[in-house]
Design a protein that fits this description.
Length: 422
C-alpha cells in the first residue's frame, strides 16, 4: 500500500502542500471543516458589498480535480494521537503516515469578553456576510430613527486595529458609504456618519516602513476616516465602545481587526507552543520528536527566525512547498530541508486609486501601488471564473461608483437585536 500524507487545512499553506505532492509516490488526503479554499485577503470586499462570497472561494475538490493521488474529506479535526499516527475528527479517526498541519489562525480578543460577544470579526465568509448585513441594517434603521443621538450611534462604525485588515476595511467602508449608500439614503445627513480607525500603537501598518504608515493615515483622513493612534479599546456593549482613556464612543458597530492567534487546534495538540499559541517547529517545519509531522503557515512558530515571520499568505504558501518537498525527500530515503523565507514584499489598499506597497525594498504609494495591488490579487485568486467575475465587478464599481451586493440576507445583526442592554 502507498503511504498516506494527510494535510489538515485547505488554506494557503495546506492547498499548496497538497498540490506540490501531486507527483509524490503517496496518496494525499486533504481534510478541512469547509469544502472550499478561501481567499481571505478579499474578505473585506464581501463585507463592504463589493463581491459575492463565491467569487473569493472555490470548492477544494474542484481546485484539485486533476490530481490523481488526491482526495478530500470534510471534517473538523479535534486532536492528534501522535504515537498512534491518528487524527481525531467529528467524522471518526483518520490514520496517516505523514501529517501536515495547516490550520491557520483565529481572532484574538485579548480576553475582552464584551468585544468577543458583541463585536464583529473578519475571518471567514459568514463573518463577512454578517458585517455586510449589519452595516446595511444600521442604515435602514437610521433613516427612520427620529432621535439624533441614536441615529448618530447607528451611523458610527468603529474599526479596531491598524494593520492591513483594519486599514483596508476602514477605507472600503468609507467608500461604500460616501460613494454608494449616500445615493440610496438621500435623506440621511453624511455629517452623522463617523468611521473611526482605532490603533493601540503609535502608527498604522506597523510591518511597513514608516513613510507608508503616514501615507496610509493621510489617505484615510482624506476619505473621512478618523484615525486615532494610542487608542486602546477595553470594551464594547453593542451600544458604545469604551477606550482605556475613559472615552466612550456611542456606536452600534465595532469591527475587531486587532489581533490573531493560532486556530484552537494548535492548543489542543498538547505540544509546545509559543507567541500567539503557534506551534513551535524545527527549522525544517517538523515537530520535535515527530519527523513525520509538519506544521506550517499561521499555525507554526519557527524558532530560528523568531516572531519576525508574519502571519501572511506568502509565508504559508512557501512553507507548504517546503513541507511537501521534505516529504518527497523522506519518501525517497533522504532528509527534510530547512525552511528559508523569500519575502516577496507587502501591499495594502486603502480604496479607490490608493494603496501602499513595499516590493524588493522599494516603497511606493498611490495609483501605481493600487494597480500592482489589483494585478497581484487577481493573479492569486484561484479559478478563471472567479478572476473574471471579480474583474467585472471591480470595473463596474470603478466606473459607476457602485457596489453590486447591497443585500441584507439576515435582517439585523442578531446579537444586537436580541441582546442590547436596555
Ligand atoms: C481578513 C484577512 C485579510 C488578510 N489579508 C492578507 C493580505 O492582504 N496578504 C497576506 O499575505 N495575508 C493576508 N491575510 C493573512 C492570510 O490570509 C493568512 O496568513 C493565511 O491564510 C495563512 O494560511 P494558512 O494556510 O496558515 O491558514 P488558512 O489559509 O487560514 O487556512 C486554514 C484552513 O484550516 C481549516 N481549519 C482550521 N481548523 C481546522 C480544524 N480543526 N479542522 C479542519 N480544518 C480546520 C480552515 O477551515 C482553513 O481552511 C489576511 C487574513 C485575513 C483574515
Amino acid at each position: 500500500m502507498r503511504p498516506l500524507v494527510v494535510v489538515v487545512g485547505a488554506g494557503f499553506g495546506g492547498l499548496r502542500a497538497a498540490r506540490a505532492l501531486r507527483r509524490a509516490p503517496a496518496d494525499v488526503l486533504l481534510v478541512d471543516r469547509h469544502n472550499y479554499h478561501l481567499f481571505q485577503p478579499l474578505l473585506y470586499q464581501v463585507a463592504t458589498a463589493g463581491l459575492e462570497p463565491e467569487e473569493i472561494a472555490k470548492p477544494v475538490r474542484a481546485v484539485l480535480r486533476g490530481q490523481r493521488n488526491f482526495d478530500f474529506r470534510l471534517a473538523q479535526v479535534t486532536g492528534v494521537d501522535f504515537a498512534a499516527r491518528r487524527l481525531a475528527t467529528d467524522e471518526g479517526p483518520i490514520g496517516y503516515d505523514y501529517l501536515i498541519l495547516a490550520t491557520g489562525a483565529a481572532a484574538n480578543f485579548f480576553r475582552l469578553k464584551s468585544v468577543e460577544q458583541f463585536g464583529l470579526t473578519l475571518k471567514d465568509i459568514p463573518d463577512a456576510v454578517r458585517i455586510r448585513n449589519h452595516v446595511l441594517s444600521c442604515f435602514e434603521e437610521a433613516i427612520f430613527e427620529p432621535d439624533a443621538e441614536r441615529r448618530r450611534a447607528l451611523l458610527t462604525f468603529v474599526v479596531v486595529g491598524g494593520g492591513p485588515t483594519g486599514v483596508e476595511m476602514a477605507g472600503a467602508l468609507s467608500e461604500l458609504i460616501r460613494l454608494v449608500l449616500v445615493k440610496d439614503y438621500r435623506r440621511l445627513d453624511l455629517k452623522d456618519v463617523r468611521i473611526l480607525l482605532l490603533e493601540a500603537g503609535n502608527r498604522l501598518l506597523a510591518g511597513f516602513p514608516e513613510r507608508l504608515s503616514e501615507a496610509a493615515a493621510n489617505t484615510l483622513w482624506r476619505k473621512h476616516v478618523e484615525v486615532r493612534h494610542g487608542a486602546l479599546v477595553t470594551g464594547f456593549d453593542a451600544t458604545a465602545a469604551t477606550l482605556k482613556s475613559g472615552e466612550i464612543v456611542p456606536a452600534r458597530t465595532l469591527i475587531w481587526a486587532a489581533g490573531v492567534q493560532a486556530a484552537p487546534l494548535a492548543e489542543a495538540l498538547g505540544v509546545p507552543t509559543a507567541h500567539l499559541g503557534r506551534v513551535k517547529v524545527e527549522p525544517t517545519l517538523q515537530l520535535a520528536g515527530h519527523p513525520e509531522v509538519f506544521v506550517i503557515g499561521d499555525a507554526a512558530y519557527l524558532d530560528a527566525q523568531g516572531p519576525s515571520l508574519p502571519m501572511m499568505a506568502p509565508v504559508a504558501i512557501q512553507m507548504g512547498e517546503t513541507a511537501a518537498r521534505s516529504i518527497r525527500r523522506l519518501l525517497a530515503g533522504g532528509a527534510a530541508v530547512p525552511f528559508v523565507y523569500k519575502d516577496p514584499g507587502t501591499l495594502a489598499t486603502i480604496g479607490r486609486n490608493a494603496a501602499v506597497a513595499r516590493i524588493r525594498g522599494v516603497s511606493f504609494t498611490g495609483f501605481p501601488a493600487w494597480v500592482v495591488w489589483l494585478v497581484v490579487h487577481l493573479i492569486q485568486l484561484i479559478g478563471f471564473r472567479n478572476r473574471l467575475f471579480v474583474l467585472t465587478n471591480w470595473a463596474w464599481d470603478y466606473f459607476f461608483y457602485d457596489r453590486a451586493v447591497r443585500l441584507i440576507t439576515e435582517p439585523t445583526h442578531p446579537r444586537v437585536s436580541q441582546e442590547v442592554p436596555s
